[in-house]
Design brief:
The complex is a heterotrimer of chains A (520), B (472) and C (297).
Chain A (H helix, E strand, L loop, with lengths): L1 H10 L6 H7 L4 H29 L4 E2 L2 E2 L3 H26 L2 H75 L5 H37 L3 H27 L4 H21 L3 H23 L8 H32 L1 H14 L4 H15 L10 H27 L3 H9 L4 H39 L4 H11 L4 H30 L9
Antiparallel strand pairs in A: 1-2
Helix pairs in contact in A: 2-3, 4-7, 4-17, 5-6, 5-7, 8-9, 10-11, 10-13, 10-15, 10-16, 12-13, 12-15, 13-15, 15-16, 15-17, 16-17
Chain B lengths: L2 H19 L1 H15 L10 E6 L6 H8 L2 H4 L3 E6 L3 H10 L4 E5 L1 H8 L7 E6 L2 E2 L1 E6 H10 L18 H9 L4 E5 L5 H12 L20 E5 L5 H7 L4 E5 L2 H7 L3 E6 H4 L6 E6 H6 L1 H18 L11 H8 L9 H8 L2 E5 L2 E4 L4 E2 L10 H13 L9 H11 L2 H14 L32 H6 L15
Parallel strand pairs in B: 1-2, 1-3, 7-8, 7-9
Antiparallel strand pairs in B: 3-11, 4-11, 5-14, 6-9, 6-10, 12-13
Helix pairs in contact in B: 3-14, 6-18, 14-19, 15-16, 17-18
Chain C lengths: L3 H7 L9 E10 L6 E11 L4 E5 L6 H9 L6 E6 L2 E2 L7 E4 L11 H12 L5 H14 L15 H14 L4 E5 L7 H17 L3 E6 L2 H7 L2 E4 L12 E2 L8 H4 L3 H24 L19
Parallel strand pairs in C: 3-8, 3-9, 6-7, 7-8
Antiparallel strand pairs in C: 1-2, 1-4, 4-5, 9-10
Amino acid sequence: MKFKILKAIDVAGLQMLDPVVRLFYGETPREQLRKIVLFIVIPVLTIILSVLLWSYLAPRHTTKAGEVPTPGVVLDAARGIQQFHTWENQKADDFLLTGEARQNALAAVDTRIAELTPLSVAAAASVEEAKATQQAYREKYATPLEAEYKQLRNDLKAKEDSQEEALIAEADTLGVNDVAARQAYLKKVAAFDAMEEANKETLRAFKDKIDAVYSEKFPVLEAAQTTYNTIEAELQYLSKRRDYLTADNQELKIASAQIELKELETGFLSATTGKETFKAAERMLKKQESIDRIATSEYSRPWTFPRQIWRSLACVFLGFFIATAIAIPLGIFCGLSRVFMAALTPFIALFKPVSPIVWLPIIFIIVGGFISDPDVSMFHPAFLSSAITVALCSLWPTLVNTALGVASVDKDHINVARVLRLGLVSRLFKIVLPSALPLIFAGLRISLGVGWMVLIAAELLSSSEGIGKFTWDMFNNGSSESFAQMFVVVFVVGIVGLVLDRIMIVFQRLVSFDGAPTAL
Amino acid sequence: MDSAKISRVHRTLTYLIHMKAKAFLANALVVLTSFTANASDLDLEKDELKVGFIKLTDCAPIVIAKEKGFFEDEGLQVEVIAQPNWKTLLDNVISGNLDGAHMLSGQPIAATIGFGTKAHIVTAYTLDLNGNGITVSNNIWAQMQENDPALDTPQPKHPISADALKPIVEEKLDEGEKLQMGMVFPVSTHNYELRYWLAASGIHPGMYTETDTGGRTDADVELSVTPPPMMPQVLEAGNIQGYCVGEPWNQQAVFKDIGVPVTTNYDIWKNNPEKVFGVTKEWSDENPNTHVAVIKALIRAGKWLDEKDASGNFVNREEAVRILSQPNYVGADYDVIKNSMTGTFTFQKSDQRKMPEFNVFFDNYCTYPWYSDGVWFLTQMRRWGQITESKPASWYFEVVEEVYQPDIYLQAATLLLEDGLIEESDVPWNTNGYKPATTEFIDGIAYDGRDPIGYLNSHTIGNKDPEGLAKK
Amino acid sequence: MNTAEDTLTFNRPTASMAHLELKDVSIGFGPEGNRTEVLSGVNLKVEQNEFIAVIGFSGSGKSTLVSLMAGLQRPDSGSVLLHGTEVTKPGPNLGIVFQNYSLLPWLSVYGNIELAVKQAFKDQSSSERREHIERYIEMVSLTAAREKKPGELSGGMRQRVSLARTLAMQPEILLMDEPLSALDALTRANLQDELVRIWEEDKRTVVLITNDVDEAVLLADKIVPLTTGPGATLSEPFQVTLDRPRDRTTLNTNPRYKALRNEIIHYMTQMNKESKALRVDNGLEMPDIEPIDFSAA
């Protein structure tokens, strides 16, 4: 049992759990504890430490564009993203609810509205109150400063004007070509300019004081606004839910359409003139059509982050699949034939460093040329373009590793193949490929990693739904949460990337017959 | 608390009290209302649509038509999808990934005449008027105040022209540098408005030529394309000293102490057209009834957005802001969007003004696709050299008639009028498509859409064309 | 492609011809002008069912000799003949057991043997094939380990798999390239006994390459020393006339065995001294120590 678990842990690449299992079975406790400290405690401590450091540093670094979010704010943003997702799912569910379930949901929504409405009124009042306080503060401090500033500016201006006049008057008395006098005069003018400059400086400094009053933060106001906004956002959501539980509910829509259909039917049956009958018949059929349409319709849900993550995964796997389908056969040919390798080398060297940002527009045009009507095509063109971009950027490690693996098959294995007189095909599938498999998988693992990295950029540009589009959209929102949302993206992308890599490690281990160590 | 909010809370409360008692009745009632709205007799060619938008508050009519169920009332299931930039948005419309989109007024025209991407795009609906602002960095603003003491008060007098900017530009030029400013797209209203504002004070914003597609030839101030959300950051970083952009990016700059909005496009040209709803000609021809249905929903959304109570306050704007601030729509903070959308605009922290017409979504017949609006954009394209050769006046009229589709608009309006969803007075039924001549520009120059050549020639800076073309 | 039919035709030896014959075989490597002759003027005749051991020092070209016989390499001059027909490419009739086993690490014991059997006997039904494979696994006493991968086996077990794989192809000639040299002494002794047993059971022509005199004496009918390279060649063979079955425990006390063994060792060391004397220019005085082989102890 113990060894089965250990083996499973090893294959799954979770070696850090190894000492835990061994300790559980009472094997060399000191040694195992030391390993636990090394592999588990220290990494966890590092994480905790960096989170603490982050919480300490983040509030101390602010730019005008925004604040670096603290872990708490990031967590809030993650919750916000999740809430949006839940709410949208709820609306989709509401649209399809029927009968008693619908009534119950409606009652729940109404109760919640009744609960929130007075809270909203109170929150609005406290916002107004806080605003009034802010206004009062500004009036109290800024207004006198502004008056003072005006006075000061006028005083200084008057002083400058009078001095300027005096200087002009003095200039009238200067003798022509009187070098010494004119030199002295020049100095005076310079002094005047310096004074003007100094006055400007004084005024600016004074203005900064006024600005400081206006920029004074009012945490009470901010808090009140946040509370009010939270309540109002939920009310907005609830009122929308109400719509989907009443007028916009699928069942009710169909019911009302059916009543109409009945009416139309009566009209049709009682129609007398030919023209009228024909029209009534047409109307009836159209109504029936629209009922069918409603019956199959769905709440058109916006793309929420969790769905976008899945979509990104689908995209990266499609891209990865395309890359594999291209890279492995090409790699095999390269590995088998020096001529082929020589022919392909310039292309590999040329295309390998090209960035996804360059590929995407080109691919977009090419894909667009094949898909004339996006509504009927199996893949959305943006999705397909992103996937192909991922493929083009990520196929190189697999290609190179496959070629290497195929070219460097153990000479003894080749001799075995010769002795057995294996044909080309069985030599390929029985000797060459199995022997190259560990290297191929090492390449695939790198490819998937590259693909995942590239995908975000591709989606961002192609506006194919996914993590990349989410990132760009949230950035475009420019809301106070945008930065925190970027952090959420960082963690999600990191974690998904980690999981993908782990999965590939497991595959790599499963095919690596020689027990070759796989790098972390 | 303003009256709109009180009325809203009041409505909710009364509603709740009555509801319990009349739950059944209320339901039935709602069903009935949806009935009347559902009475669309249009034979839709397509009922699932994808509509693109850019995260700016003036996408509101599209978002509202979806969220308030106006699209559904027409039997349309509409997915509203944010686009990363104007270029991609246009490409997606052309390629058919999108059925229609929120577009810059200049985009359908430019696409149709082949400036940039060539495609025949049409519009039957103007989404809004005004809504842009010009923001300069704090430093430039301080210098402008020094140049013109009249600006150096907590609430300076508007409109503010670029006169106080001119000395700064000249000083820079003497140092061998050029002031840099950002706008969002070569054919965007922002580009033309910023150019207009600068040129009105004798600052040359640069010409487009056959070889200079950046539009910097002879420029005193160089303009460059920057995506709206990047504007505040780029301004703070000092790469540009000012920009012209839509909301919420001007208000963001004030609230974050990055810059000062000096003027809005309302002051540059009172009630100027801003965004349109664009589709390809091909799509419009294939789906004529669907197009009308979409326009019907948009008209209702526009009307809903501009609904006012007896004392002239918007009744629905707060709800609209609440919806727009959702992350899948504009997504900016509620309090930031609310400012301009509910009719206040913050120029400086000490200078908050009522601007009820900052965003117009329905009033002044604004949603009608006016030919004269199209002609104005064409004159600007010619003025700044995006149209490289002289064209006769008749060409201007032909182009706008290809792009603007008042017939579709009127068809939609007629249906709405029949259903009693709009008033007769909401629509200019008998216009020839040209607004009366106006002088409501920052420099007071008269614009008459029926005389594009004369208008071109009345400006000091920019291309001029032979008078003879006016008659052709 | 070789089939069972081919093997049958090959199995009909003509009286005058030797079973396997090397005629004046020479091979070398390296470019013109800097060429090293590995083997030159090698002549050898192997009769049907004869067990020949080629004995030589490390680096004298033994492996090259096996490659030539197996058809893995072609001689630069001279010819390798099987029933008078030139061997041009390797095949299942020339079974070879490699020094380092050459098992396919991704296949199990069964899988490795199966791969070979499938190639050698294409017409077998699957049950026949299974039986065939099992028989050879049994022969090398590996039934318990049949599903193990080579990585999980000890060196001795691996070499048994390799042996079973080669035997299972039922080659006309079994070529063994130092099959036991990588093993420890005890395992080696064990396997030698095993080899004897199998050969008794399944008589066929064997060429064993080895560097171990005791091994050669124990197993072979004829021992052919390979002179030290470069340009190595085969010397006059020593006939081993000891009776079979030979028992290693009693053999040690057999005077004929001792005499033969000493004679060969003397011949080999003498030859080694000569070749060393030819290479005095390396300027390094070698200690005068004779290696003692414990493997036969």
